[in-house]
Amino acid sequence: MDMSAGDRKGLSLFALIMIGIGSIFGSGWLFGAGAAAQVAGPAALVAWVIGAVFIGMIAMSYAEVGAAYPIPGGMARYGHLSHGPVLGFLTGWAVWIAVASLIPIESIAATQYMTSWDVDWAQGLVDPASHRLTLSGTVTALVLTVVLWLTCYWSVRLLARANTVLTLVKFAIPVLAVAALIASGFHTSNFTAHGGFAPYGWPAVLTAVTTCGVVFAFNGFQAVVNLGGAARNPGRAIPVALAGALALGLVLYLALQTAYLGAVPPGQLARAGGWQGVDLNSPFADLAKLLMLHWVVTMLQFGAFISPAGSNIANVASAAYMVTNLAETGFFPRKLAAVHPRYGTARPAMWLNLGFSVLLLLTVGRSWQALAGVVSAAMVISYLIGPIAVGVLRRTRPGLPRPFRLPAAGVLCPVTFAFAACALYWSKWPDTGKVALLTLVSVPVAVLVLRRKGAGATGRAASDRLRSQLAPAWWMILFLVWMATLSALGSPDFGGRGLIPGGLDIALVALTAPAFYFWAVRAGVRAHEAGLTGTEPATAAAPAPIVTPDDGRPMVSV
To answer: Which stretches of sequence are listed as region Disordered (predicted)?
Structure first.
């Protein structure tokens, strides 16, 4: 198996950076600044920096593993590579849920921004009191989800060709919005009035990182890891594309947050009683209306469709890759990995993702803000295996070619894992409990599948085999139970009951996380010694991107 892929014809570095930027600039910029300001006030700026640093640390750990194993949709496979089938399914399940959830949330974002249209029917799409989609809004979001899915189903080649153009347009719209808002009148007093820079305390800043779309926005880095295996030189392309996309993302999100904070009229802020009272359905569009910037409103209304649609190109591709990878490992039906012989699309996987998207939209996905918090918590769980896989593979596969090596991995990996644990805690109860339970549902499913696979064995032999396969996953199971318990009993600042005082709760998370990290690494080493991780996966586990010989532009197969 050739893992170097150095001369593979596929995505260029520029195309991969564009995929990363296109994914980072989805619906997050449309709502993130308004939601973060409402929770943390001007200190929301700090939340964006914390989020970028956190995601950057996670991304670099995935860069090492992704460059060594350039597998399309590889984030669903790294747990299997490091710990064997049970943890592989558990983490792959978490990654799939996180990525597939992005498909409906982009349609919800576009629907919510329709309320800024000056037509009567658009005003009824969202309940102004709860900011939740009404029945007509839910139907509209469903239609948008299905239309986008059908477009990818039939014309993914055309959409992939247009990805670079869409990304440039998506990048230009927020830049112009920032310039227009600042030029309309920048009120520096907004950064200190009504409680100061951090009016609701620093716990609110930490909460904003995971519940207000900060982690959600930067999560676009996953597209680089999941599709980077199809790059011409993954070892160089993946880390460079990650660094470039995240750096540009941080600069623009800080600019958007600054412009939003400074552009809100002081009178409006005073009437609202502070930042918590500034509650806008379509934050930038509604603010532009207040400032009489009608051309900006029109541009933002256009951007509310371009940004989610562009991001969902990578979301649909990544989610399909997740399903095909889980099918290749045997935990999803093999039929889901089937690729259409003519169109090169994994259509059964796409059908599954569409069904999940519709179910999510009809149940918990009635507003962008509500769904973003749950999705962000699920994303954090999906991040956990990155630094652990680096630690395990450094010990078990020291001779593995690593085109990119994470510097100071012995220190950065446990610190990154501890940061991820804190971010999961900051997601607030009950979201932490919901995503922990949703992730742990995969454990009994894994047990049933493994029992079926080992149907030939009976009695003690079957029991011992199942016990050995479960052993490398116990750290994750107990970690999720521990985090959910801490979240439920912790500080009210993070949604808990207050049985564990504020400050002590964060200390418990930070101090126990390294213990779980080293337990996880040791479990992975033992899994390799026991032969549970099996053979390396082939890079052809999922359909490779199609590239036309005439112009070399990326043609992503879903």
So the answer is: 539-558
Residue 91 falls inside a structural domain = yes
Locate 100 and state its tokens.
């597939």
Q: Give the pLDDT confidence of 54-106 residue by residue, as tens digits.
A: 889 988 898 888 888 877 667 778 888 899 988 988 988 988 888 888 888 88
The answer to whether 558 and 156 are in contact (CB under 8 A) is yes
Please write the tens of the pLDDT for every residue from 39-52. 999 999 999 999 99
Residues of the domain holding 360: 13-530
Query: Could you tell me the pTM of the whole model?
Result: 0.78
Contacts of 403 (CB under 8 A, 6+ apart): 4, 67, 68, 233, 234, 235, 236
Q: Which amino acid is it at 140?
A: T
545 within some domain: no
541, part of any domain? no
Tokens of 418: 């501890």
d(CA 284, CA 259): 10
- The token duo for 524 is 């992975």
Four-CA torsion 146, 149, 154, 156, nearest 10 degrees: 150
The rounded distance, in Å, linking the Cα atoms of 526 and 529 is: 5
pLDDT, one tens digit per residue, over 227-242 is 666 667 777 788 888 8
Q: Are 332 and 353 in contact (CB under 8 A)?
A: no
Q: How many domains does the chain have?
A: 1
pLDDT tens per residue across span 187-201: 999 999 888 999 998
For residue 554, the cross-strand partners are 547
